[in-house]
Amino acid sequence: RAHHNLNGRSFQFHRDNLGASSAAAYEAIVDTLRNGNTHFSFRQNPSRDDITDAYHAVLADHPELFFTNGRLSMSLVNGRIVSADAGRMMSDAEWRRNLRICDSAVSEITSSMPSKSSTYDRVIHVYKHIIRETEYGLESEDNQNMCSVFDDHVSCCAGYSRAFQYALTSMGIPATYVSGYVDGRIKTGSHAWNLVWIDGQPCYIDITWGDPVYAGIDSNPRRVSYDYFGLGSADMSRTHTPDSSIARYLPSVPDGNLNWYRHNGLYFSRYDEKEVASSVQRYIMTNEIGSRHDNLGEIAIRFSNRAAFDAAGTSFWDGGRIGYIAAPAFTANGFSMANMHHSVNEDLLIHHFTFDIVRR
Asked: What pLDDT, in 10s, does the model give residues 280-324?
């Protein structure tokens, strides 16, 4: 299979940041797991920490090795660790069957990709597909791995992030798994997200928070939020903190044009109604919001500072100006606009306006 094979070599971000002893243990572990086995033996003399770091790095780099349960037991001879065993949560036959299901799902996503898509658009396509086909929840016994997304279609952050990683790397787009915790207005606690390289440039993407049902923005399962798509380190750190074990080697990512709002011309450093209105109308006219009824008539606008954000809220929502701006663009694309809804992301200074639109 071509999965995890980028330019002739595996994309192993966490492996490439290990010390020599841990890296040697990593190779022994990953070679064993790839064959469906869980008993590792070591030629060198790795420490307990070396083995633990290596094992966690393997699981972070290889979402396809989901048959282990994340627990290790180690065997010592004369105080030296000579072997280790990983707990198994499914048989070898079950793993291979489930892996075929996941590969089939990825192939379906790939086959539905629009022709001549840019790398950015390919990542967006995978992102939307996973969000729309997955319900957030803990009901699946595989919620910590990608089977919950590709087979059960019910998952939590670990499953979303590992599925996203696997689908992207299978298409030759480098992506890795980041574990940590969040502390913000949306959720708190342990969490996982992704670091993705688009045309060689890194950015952070939280696909779980792309589900507005999970994020509390909306209850419609067809909605997709892009608030946490393409973020730099500064933006991500407002709510996300990586585990200390990996924070030291994560790259410092600038806030740039991979950010969905910047990429779509919906990011502003000041509130100027004519400038914002022009961009909003252009977005409605030229993007799938108007041509395919995508995102159910949502317009989201981001500001770089609180003053501009507050001014937009006063004018667009309190003053009702967003309706006057959006209506002509929707009408030109053959839609009638009815009710409006408003929500905000205070952490990233984003206004969400959702419209009930129907084909005329």
From this structure: 999 988 876 655 555 567 889 999 999 999 999 999 988 889 988
Strands (E), 78-219: 80-88, 135-136, 154-155, 175-183, 188-198, 201-205
Question: What is the rounded CA–CA span in Å between residue 319 and residue 298?
Answer: 18
- 48-61 and 20-34 helices cross at what angle (nearest 10)? 50
With contact defined as beta carbons under 8 Å apart, do 221 and 194 qualify?
no
Is the pTM higher than 0.70? yes
- Residue 231 CA to residue 296 CA, distance in Å, equals 24
Model confidence over 327-339: pLDDT tens digits? Answer: 888 888 888 888 8
Tell me the C-alpha to C-alpha distance, in Å, between residue 294 and each of 48, 150, 222, 337: 51, 22, 8, 14
Residues in a beta bridge with 39 = 85
Residue 240 vs residues 33, 187, 197, 236, 347: alpha-carbon distances, Å: 31, 10, 19, 6, 11
Q: Residue holding tokens 């595996």? A: 10
Helix (H, G, I), strand (E, B) or coil at 21: helix
Tell me the DSSP string of 258-298.
TSHHHHTT-EESS--HHHHHHHHHHHHHHSHHHHS-GGGGE
